[in-house]
Amino acid sequence: MKETNQLAIIVGACLLLAGVSIFFSFGTGLTFEPDLVADSYTAVLENDGTLTETYVYDVASAGTYRMLFRTWDDTLAFDTMQSPYVELIDVKAPADMVGYGIDWRGNSVVTGEGAEEQRALIESLGEYNEMGIFRETRLGAGQYAAQYTVRLHPPLQYDDEDAHFNLKLAATHIPYRSVDITIPGAYVKDIWVRPTSFETVMEDGNYHITGTAGENALIEIEMLLDPAYLEVIDGFPEKTDGVREQTETAALLYTVPALLSSLMLLLGRIGVVAAPLYLIAIFLRHGREKQAVVPEHISFVPDTSLLPWQVNLIFNGDAVDFDENGFYATILDLHRREILHVTEHSDGEGVEIEVLKTVSDDAYEQRVINFVSNAGKGGVLDTRSFALAASAGGEKIAALNTSLSALTSEVNRAISSRYIVEGRGRVLPLVGVGLGITLFSFFLFFISPITAPVSVPAGLLGIVMIIQGGIAAVFPTTLFGAWKEDYYAEKLKWDGFRAFLSDSAMIQRYSPSDLSMWGEWLVYGTALGVGEKVEKAMANLSVDIHETGMPHVHMMYAGFIPVARYTPPSSSGGFGGGGGFGGGGGFGGGGAGGR
Cα(456)–Cα(21) distance, rounded to whole angstroms? Predict the structure, then answer.
């Protein structure tokens, strides 16, 4: 495959990943909505702690829900309590539905026509600290409005200068498409709104807070107020030293991770888009090869001075990868050069390899000779013994498997550096940046879980960058590197030779009369991974492979299968209330849902 085509595949895959990941990174739970969301959530707080909330529930699936509700993490009560609580005032339901509230002890209040008849069913289906609207028959698709009025009796911290009120309006809830919160500003000195993506403006003496909240996103308003506020609200004040300092420190501990998470998210989005551009830039700077004119099909071995294992390493796929074809091609070449002698068994069950010469000047060939000598007896290896060894199991077959695995994957790759400049290292910065974004984002999530809506997508974008780098690394190292001197032209010649051997029509047109040429084609074709195609072409042309003095390639493969595919038996075993400072520490909590 041409390098430009390889680059196009990489860039296309990276852009696809970038588009999908960025699309989902903007998802706040609303990208693919569940079948129940809050189309709008409106909350109005009064100075005395009265909170009026209006939910417009949007039900997408008919016949699924009959209870739409709002829960509280803190105590919901109907009577006066001696500790912080939420006092239920009223529930307004649509005309054909019943409003209800269930307090912290399981007692209920119901409103609306026919409410008393439904009380027992509501109590059996509802949860404690919950208020909502109910219809005995399942709801159809559509929107349903509910209004809840409560009076907050929150914990309050104060000193001589400031009072502190942390109001958590939602923490566990369905997605809210639209959020509109009004906070009276008469006593407020400073305000912190979470999530930080919400917009806060001051109008007519009130803070108007708007935004969109994904599923389970924290919605919290933390305030420093004039101590006079303690006389206005019926709360549970607690004398605390350094209220402002504690509030600002806690807010900072939320704000800094939140800002850093937003930065990581931005960098992640930029990174996944920049990744394919970076890869293109590397290719244009380092990967483009010198132009060379080489025929698409070449009928001769480009360089017979190269040993088959070297051809397999350098010119069969990636220039730093070696596979089993190099091993089998080496055995065939040693047979052709009369260092080994390979004889096929008449029953077609493998081959017999005899060592004729025990020494080779090449280190890899010497390893092959040593393997044959050690695996056989008296300098003769009968591959039928492999099947018996595999059946028996034990250390012998395991040792043979280890040795063969090394011979079919490990060679001295130093020779590659004579031909190429490796380019995979140039992809590492992309992987490194992605890894950095991932680790730092998940660290932010670990120290501040409420940043999850931002830090988790940021971390996932970092993982996408790592994947993009991994995709680039799968392709040949020369794609982002280069062939030295004129070796790219030689590489094209070997490609042309492989293409020739893979085309039976071309072989038929240029079939040699010299039978020894078939042996040479078989050896180097095996090194290039097309040995069996050469063998097939010989059969089609009625060329008897034995007359060439060479064994069948497929017999070689078959003989070593019991060792190559041996897997040792596996062994198994086994083993038998809120109200504090900072993000997430507010009073209230809960949120909207349905069942």
Answer: 12
| Helix H or strand E segment including 404 | helix 395-407
Residue 514 main-chain phi, psi, to 5 deg: -80, 110
Bridge partner residues of 133 (DSSP) = 68, 99
Encode 124-189 in three state secondary structure: HHCCCCEEEEECCCCCCCEEEEEEEEEEEECEEEECCCCEEEEEEEECCCCCEEEEEEEEECCCEE
Instruction: Write down the pLDDT at residue 483.
Output: 87
Question: Quick one: average pLDDT of 172-195?
Answer: 94
Those residues whose C-beta lies under 8 Å from the C-beta of residue 28, and which sit 6 or more positions away, are 175, 212, 213, 214, 215, 217, 453
Q: Kindly provide the residue ranges of all beta strands, DSSP E only, lying in 161-292, ordered along the sequence.
A: 163-170, 176-184, 188-194, 199-203, 206-213, 219-225, 236-239
Q: Distance between CA 10 and CA 408 in Å, rounded?
A: 29
Question: What value does the mean pLDDT take over residues 32-44?
Answer: 91
Region 274-279: what's the mean pLDDT?
94
Q: What is the pLDDT of residues 553-585, one digit of tens each?
A: 888 888 888 888 887 765 444 443 566 655 566
Q: What is the Cα–Cα distance from 538 to 523, expressed in whole angstroms?
A: 14
Q: Could you give the CA distance from residue 221 to residue 10 in angstroms, rounded to a whole number?
A: 47
Say whether 368 sits in a helix, a strand or coil. Answer: helix
Instruction: Calculate ∠ Cα 85-90-91, nearest 5°.
Output: 110
CA distance 545 to 346: 14
Residue 210 and residue 282: Cα distance in Å, rounded? 45
Contact predicate 178/242, CB 8 Å: no
Please state at what angle helix 3-25 crosses helix 452-474, rounded to 10 degrees.
Answer: 170
Q: How many CB atoms lie within 10 A of CB 131?
A: 27
Helix axes 384-392, 395-407, angle to 10 degrees: 130
The vertex-419 CA angle with 416 and 420, nearest 5°, equals 80
Q: Taken in order 455, 20, 424, 280, is the CA torsion positive or negative?
A: negative
pLDDT of 28 strictly over 80: no
pLDDT of residue 512: 72
To which residue do tokens 């020779």 refer? 415
Break the chain down into helix, strand, coil percent, rounded to 5.
45, 25, 35
Residue 229, sorted as left (phi over 0), alpha (psi -120 to 50) or beta, turns out to be alpha
Alpha helix stretches (DSSP H) within 475-542: 487-502, 504-509, 515-527, 531-540
pLDDT at 27 over 70: no
As given in the structure block, the two tokens for residue 541 are 């042309």
385's CB contacts (< 8 A; 6+ apart) are 375, 376
Q: How far does CA 570 lie from the centroid of its chain?
A: 29
- Tell me which residue has tokens 């005395």: 48
